[in-house]
Design goal:
This protein has 384 residues and is of the alpha/beta class. It has a domain at 113-190. 30% of the residues lie in helices and 22% in strands. It has 13 helices and 13 strands. The strands form two sheets. The protein has an eight-stranded mixed sheet with strand order 7-8-9-3-10-11-13-12, with helices on both faces. A hairpin with a 2-residue loop joins β4 (63-72) and β5. α4 crosses α5 (142-155), α4 (126-137) runs parallel beside α7 (174-187) and α5 crosses α7. The longest helix is centred in the middle third of the chain and has 18 residues, at 204-221. Bound molecules: adenosine-5'-triphosphate and nickel (II) ion.
Length: 384
């Protein structure tokens, strides 16, 4: 096997706020291979966007990447190492801001966001914005850049591209604007496109069309994608492999088919049960219990224990290791859950939370017991 195109190792990004340190991305590992479409999925607040921004070094104040390494094609986009006197500092190998700007962003890696109106300037024609972007990023003159721009518009399915070239962003529908952004991302022939919920604001039909377009372009250009979404349906439709994030951590990673047919982490199961499916009525949906705890003060042990239907006492104590739990001869399938470790889960008592079957033990009793428990477990398990 060749080296992955992108490797993210132990990435940690924090926001230093007045309320405390937000551990938005807290030791994340994943990979994207050449030409692969990899999903990053999880509920709102899981840290998906911050992870995506960290790869591109686009995290803004009061946020900072405090640890980890991001390697792209052998280059260190991020490389934070401990100095001899114990401080965490960028290594000599880490690219400079200028190298990031001139070599990586928009050239090797492009990023597409949810809201095209934020990325397109309303006062300039759509085609001109695309042309200018191409001129800036490729060694071509204005005329050639315009030809490429029209070609790209056609490529992403804009009808009559030479005419629509002269339209302003507001004259395009949301789906068409998103197509333009994909054209812009592709125009520089990047090796990786990071897409942060680019279809979330679109209606289902238009979303389907954009996903078809992406699958199609991915095959044609062999571009790798990191696709950020909260929607397992989107993952099922386009991704080869998926990483599930919960509260700053990746908790499960597998090929998409394996993830759906041999789900290992209770959080992934809960996410799948909460997802609308054609073979299931809306009433049969089973939303995940409780709310995601604050990333400022994550629960002890397994971070999902406050909402997990299978949570036991041991889950409060042991922080699970993220490791391969595939059976012999099967494709790698990593999970971080103590059910797959040897730390006494089987003999441990079920936790008495809203999410578990044991939730009948008396709310008052539980509250009484909880009052004495100051081990950093917020009130997530007593949510009404
Ligand atoms: N500028 C900021 N200042 C403080 N905290 C932030 C900032 N940006 C993000 N966070 C926090 O970082 C955590 C991760 O946020 P992130 O936007 O990555 O989540 P997400 O998984 O992308 O969710 P969504 O699906 O809502 O986009 C959250 O707890 C969020 O509140
Ligand atoms: Ni996000």
């Amino acid at each position: 096997m060749s080296e992955p195109l992108l490797t993210v190792e132990n990435l940690k990004t924090q926001f230093f706020t007045e309320e405390g340190t937000v551990r938005a991305v807290d030791g994340v590992n994943f990979e994207v291979n050449e030409g692969e479409l990899v999903g990053l999925v999880g509920e709102s607040g899981a840290g998906k966007s911050v992870a995506a921004q960290s790869i591109m070094r686009l995290v803004e104040e009061p946020g900072r990447i405090v640890d980890g390494t991001v390697t792209f094609d052998g280059k260190k986009l991020v490389d934070i190492q401990e100095t001899p006197d114990g401080r965490m500092e960028p290594s000599d190998e880490m690219l400079t801001n200028r190298e990031m700007r001139e070599q990586i962003r928009g050239r090797e890696i492009a990023i597409v966001f949810q809201d095209p109106m934020e990325s397109l300037n309303p006062v300039f024609k759509v085609g001109d914005q695309l042309r200018e972007f191409i001129e800036l990023n490729r060694e071509v003159g204005a005329a050639e850049a315009k030809d490429i721009a029209v070609d790209m518009l056609r490529e992403v399915g804009i009808p009559e591209p030479a005419i629509r070239y002269d339209d302003y962003p507001h004259e395009f529908s949301g789906g068409m604007r998103q197509r333009v952004l994909i054209a812009m991302a592709l125009a520089c022939e990047p090796r990786l496109i990071i897409a942060d919920e680019p279809t979330t604001a679109l209606d289902v039909t238009v979303e389907g069309q954009i996903l078809d377009l992406v699958s199609d372009l991915q095959e044609r250009y062999d571009t790798a994608f990191l696709w950020v979404t909260h929607d397992m349906g989107v993952v099922a439709e386009i991704c080869d492999r998926v990483n599930v994030m919960y509260l700053g951590e990746v908790v499960e990673e597998a090929e998409v088919d394996n993830m759906f047919h041999d789900t290992k982490h209770p959080y992934t199961e809960a996410l799948l049960r909460s997802m609308p499916r054609p073979d299931r009525s809306v009433e049969a949906l089973d939303p995940i219990k409780g709310v995601m705890p604050e990333a400022i003060n994550p629960p002890s042990g397994c971070r999902f224990h406050t909402r997990c239907p299978e949570a036991r006492e041991a889950c409060k104590e042991f922080h699970p290791q993220f490791r391969d739990a595939s059976d012999a001869g099967e494709a790698p399938h990593a999970v971080s859950c103590i059910k797959y470790e040897d730390v006494g889960y089987e003999h441990s008592e079920p936790l008495d939370t809203e999410a578990t079957g044991a939730f009948a033990g008396g709310l008052a009793e539980m509250r009484g017991a909880d009052g004495a428990d100051a081990a950093g477990v917020p009130g997530g398990d007593t949510d009404e």
